[in-house]
Amino acid sequence: MMRRRFRVGPPWSPLFSSRPCSHSHQRRRRLHASSPNSGPRQGNFILPGATAATIVMFGILHARRMYQDQKVVEMKEKGIEPEFSPDFKASFLRLLPLRSMSRLWGSLMEVELPVFMRPAIYKSWARAFHSNLQEAALPLEEYPSLQAFFIRSLKEGSRPIDADPNCLVSPVDGKVLRLGELRGPGTMIEQVKGFSYSAASLLGASSSLHGAEEEDFSREHTEQSIRADSNVKSWWRVSVASPKLRDQTLLSPKKGIFYCVIYLNPGDYHRVHSPVDWHIIKRRHFSGHLFPQNERAVRTIRNLYVENERVILEGQWKEGFVALAAIGATSVGSIKLFIEPELRTNRAGSKILNSQRPDERVYEPAGTGVMVKKGEEVAGFRMGSTVVMVFEAPVSKAREDGRSVTTDFDFCIKAGDRIRVGEAIGRWSE
């Protein structure tokens, strides 16, 4: 596979900004207003029409969300965990042109709204999706479109970052769906009870994760073999003649591979921050479907995260491998990177076959890439989606019985928790 190498370096220009119209655009608007064929009727038709469509959309989404929330509450009250169960709707979604529909929806989201209507529309959105408008960095009147409001930045200090060097923090605001440890090559990440997918299929065949998995598996296998061989020897040969061997087999440090899946609903803050200090070495872009990623979709669509369009950032931190998978969803389906603003997702004409090789970019200098600090913005979504973290973290030394291994790294969260950018996902002790 051909890899392109680029040099990317700071400073990064702001990815999302609420800019006024360009001079050329303003001139076109003035010319249009002075044209004899254009009158107030035409302009009045477009803006109220878009505003009415927006209000209707809010009503439909809010009603649908209330219904789904009620169903989830009823299941939780009964102590029932939803299981994977594909249905007709999941099959029907494959027949719809979701990518084209998402691009169209993106265009509607960028329609400039009348200034006097903006606060009412954005407050309606906030009520429907439980957004906190007090955190918005700008007054509501200064967001020209729903898109600008959706990708809004927050006031300084709204997301304090946990400064503990021995912790990973959440890269996004959202709900924790799944988390756990990957044990051995080929292990699976649970999508929902009754269905799982492999980390290899999510991150790609060329991911450095596979080397980390094999190295950990080989190290564990070697230590087990050495322990077995040591048991054959007499006690005095192991403890007196080879004391260093005994220390190495029973007290050797290990690394575990963990994952965490976080879902962002439409009302959440939609920028992605760095979970640790790390070097981003490569980027992988998979052009795929744009299925929805709500709770119903997770329960009914096979390989949801593997089939959807996604951008993978992969690199190294002080404890080893780390990757962030930003997964697109229906409605716009756009993912933006701060370190690569020219990247375009959900492009017209892109193939969506799973067999298609991803577009891969290696950041230079080779082997080092781009350094980002914990809490820095690295990407952003144009609509609700999901982030999957896969990372290495320290695990404890083997116990002297040689049979069990416990982890030093512990998650601070559990499935179902709400978490915000900068809050600890897990910690370990040294």
From TrEMBL:
Organism name: Leersia perrieri
Active site: D173 (charge relay system), H273 (charge relay system), S385 (charge relay system), S385 (schiff-base intermediate with substrate)
Protein name from the UniProt record: Phosphatidylserine decarboxylase proenzyme 1, mitochondrial
Signal peptide as annotated in the record: none
Reaction(s) catalysed (UniProt annotation): a 1,2-diacyl-sn-glycero-3-phospho-L-serine + H(+) = a 1,2-diacyl-sn-glycero-3-phosphoethanolamine + CO2
Region (Disordered): 17-45
Matching HAMAP family: PS_decarb_PSD_B_type1_euk (MF_03208)
Mitochondrial matrix side: 1-48
Subunit-structure text: Heterodimer of a large membrane-associated beta subunit and a small pyruvoyl-containing alpha subunit.
Site (Cleavage (non-hydrolytic)): G384, S385
Cofactor descriptive note: Binds 1 pyruvoyl group covalently per subunit.
Residue positions, PTM Pyruvic acid (Ser): S385
Cross-referenced Pfam families: PS_Dcarbxylase
Required co-factors: pyruvate
Keywords assigned by UniProt, alphabetized: Decarboxylase, Lipid biosynthesis, Lipid metabolism, Lyase, Membrane, Mitochondrion, Mitochondrion inner membrane, Phospholipid biosynthesis, Phospholipid metabolism, Pyruvate, Transmembrane, Transmembrane helix, Zymogen
Function text: Catalyzes the formation of phosphatidylethanolamine (PtdEtn) from phosphatidylserine (PtdSer). Plays a central role in phospholipid metabolism and in the interorganelle trafficking of phosphatidylserine.
